[in-house]
């Protein structure tokens, strides 16, 4: 079956220059954007139950812009003023630059990786091993970080937001040839919304090893996976898929 309609489980890109739009035009496919999950804030009262004092920490680890938003919003609710000496460690430069929304950006206190993987940050964390790190996460984060533990990084995970299913309305059509996921929570939401979901000819693509594992653990077939050497991004993986699809249709 030829893929003509794709659902990307993320918000629609703000810029028309997104590679998704180029792919849609180039290969004549319909790409729609609809998050399967949404993020909700936790209240200061809920956060206090974790018995974590933000000002006990000298550095913060951020893996996403969402974490930055909820960290500073929670600080505001708790009436906590973050000192200028606080250091920030981010998984990518784009996440690091997002800090400008809340703080004066100074290179001497902001560090970032290149790959988007937490492991890529470890050398910088080791270099600043004297710091006490706070690691904002969502309530569904069950991740373990063996490299942080192995290198004796002093860090504490703090739940600062919750991830919930963004339920489909009864009247919403679900007639896609391909579904693209970016987190295990998205897979959980799919099965919550459609408990009798049968994949059949529907292609499933995902970004990241934990999402890939969630797809397989759910008994689903994984057709497209990123990152990998020839496809470092989800859009690169889609481009390769449609190139191959076009070749096959011309045979």
TrEMBL record:
Which organism is the protein's source?
Coprobacter fastidiosus NSB1 = JCM 33896
Q: Kindly provide the name given to this protein in its UniProt entry.
A: Uroporphyrinogen-III synthase
Q: What Gene3D superfamilies does the record tag this protein with?
A: 3.40.50.10090
**Which Pfam families does this UniProt record tie to the protein?**
HEM4
Show the InterPro entries listed in the entry.
4pyrrol_syn_uPrphyn_synt_sf, 4pyrrol_synth_uPrphyn_synth, UROS/Hem4
Q: Which GO terms describe its biological process?
A: uroporphyrinogen III biosynthetic process
Q: Name one GO molecular function term.
A: uroporphyrinogen-III synthase activity
User: Which residue ranges does the record assign to the Tetrapyrrole biosynthesis uroporphyrinogen III synthase domain?
Assistant: 24-235
Q: Where are the transmembrane segments?
A: none
Q: Which SUPFAM superfamilies match?
A: HemD-like
- One GO cellular component from the entry? cytosol
């Amino acid at each position: 079956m030829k893929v003509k309609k794709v659902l990307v489980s993320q918000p629609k890109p703000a810029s028309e220059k997104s590679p998704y739009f180029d792919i849609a035009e180039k290969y004549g496919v319909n790409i729609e954007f609809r998050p399967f999950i949404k993020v909700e804030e936790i209240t200061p009262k809920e956060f206090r139950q974790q018995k974590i004092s933000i000002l006990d920490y000298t550095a913060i680890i951020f893996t996403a812009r969402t974490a930055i938003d909820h960290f500073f919003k929670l600080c505001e609710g708790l009436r906590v003023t973050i000192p200028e000496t606080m250091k920030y460690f981010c998984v990518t430069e784009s996440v690091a630059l997002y800090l400008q929304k809340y703080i004066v950006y100074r290179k001497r206190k902001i560090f970032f990786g290149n790959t988007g993987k937490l492991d890529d940050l470890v050398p910088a964390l080791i270099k600043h091993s004297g710091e006490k790190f706070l690691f904002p996460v969502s309530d569904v984060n069950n991740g373990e970080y063996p490299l942080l533990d192995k290198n004796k990084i002093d860090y504490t995970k703090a739940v600062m937001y919750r991830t919930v299913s963004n339920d489909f309305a009864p009247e919403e059509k679900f007639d896609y040839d391909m579904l693209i996921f970016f987190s295990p929570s998205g897979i959980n939401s799919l099965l919550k919304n459609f408990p009798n979901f049968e994949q059949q000819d529907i292609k499933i693509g995902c970004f990241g090893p934990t999402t890939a594992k969630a797809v397989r653990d759910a008994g689903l077939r994984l057709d497209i996976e990123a990152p990998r050497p020839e496809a470092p991004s989800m859009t690169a993986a889609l481009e390769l898929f449609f190139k191959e699809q076009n070749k096959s249709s011309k045979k």
